[in-house]
Amino acid sequence: MAAQEETTQRAVFVDTSNEPRTDEEAVSMCTQGLERATAPRDIADLQFRLANAQVRRGFPELAVAAFRACVAADPRRLDAFNNLGLLLLRRYDYGAAATEFRHGLAVSESAELLLNLGVAVEHAGDVEEAQRCYERVITIAPKDARPHANLGALAAKRGALDEAIACHRKAVELNPDDPWLSFNLGDALEDAGDDESAIRAYEASIQLPCAKNNLAGLLEKSGDYDRAEALYAECCAQSPDDYDFAVNRACCARSRGVDAEALFADAAKLCERPYACAFNLAELAAARGDIQTALARAKEAVAYADEEEIDDARELLRALLEAWRDSLDDANVIEDALAHGLEI
């Protein structure tokens, strides 16, 4: 959670001479303290500590209940409103999250609450209010890079790439050590077609797997296949469960003329509907004359394809059936064609 627990000189009803070593101990100590606490602020402190411990333990429902008990005991606890809102935000309950951030802002304006409110309403679809929130954060916290980055993302969504780039440049200027800000700048520059500047921005955020992936794509585009392949390999090592990284690595290997079938087969295991893998495996099998494997993979591609992919998948299958019609039983060819809505 963003907010930190506040220290206090007031007596609380737990033994603070021996701080809890685990979250389970924290829950136990706070629960015992709440059995004896009577002062509202003491109750709020204990509930806040209890809520954060429950978050760390992975019990969000218990954390929500404790945060609500905290603000019920002390309605001026901005940190509790903020943490409760963040917890709801992470559960994709954007309306409820926005409500908690608004409750906190009703007590006192804070850049953190405003920024988080902007994120909540943006995800809920109210981009105009989100923009107002981010602009207000800039007014009250001019050295905070985050609202500039968020405004850049909003500008990119509406196609204002020059504005997006300017916002992201400002964010990087304010916090050059945050790799995500450089990555966002690179993404905007790449969308604008400025590959050279995008490469520099991705190099500045190279510790991020997504930056390696995007940089590899630009290097592959420029013909630097060796470094591109090395970066894709690093992406997959850092994020072994990422399907897109694995597919990009396999595609790069194929474009280099390297045997990529094993890479596509491994990538296919990372996705329930691995269309790209099936399509490429079908083409590779066809190239080596393996009729049955090519047809099987092409049928998988048709099964996995979405609305934008289905025409290409069907055309691949149709072309394979047509090309090998003389080698296959006509009845089977016709049956396959009809089953997949094809004309042979």
From TrEMBL:
SUPFAM superfamilies: TPR-like (SSF48452). InterPro entries: TMTC_O-mannosyl-trnsfr, TPR-like_helical_dom_sf, TPR_2, TPR_rpt. TPR repeats lie at residues 111-144, 145-178. Keywords: Repeat, TPR repeat. The keyword NADP does not apply. Signal peptide: none annotated. PANTHER family: PROTEIN O-MANNOSYL-TRANSFERASE TMTC1, PTHR44809. This is UDP-N-acetylglucosamine--peptide N-acetylglucosaminyltransferase SPINDLY.
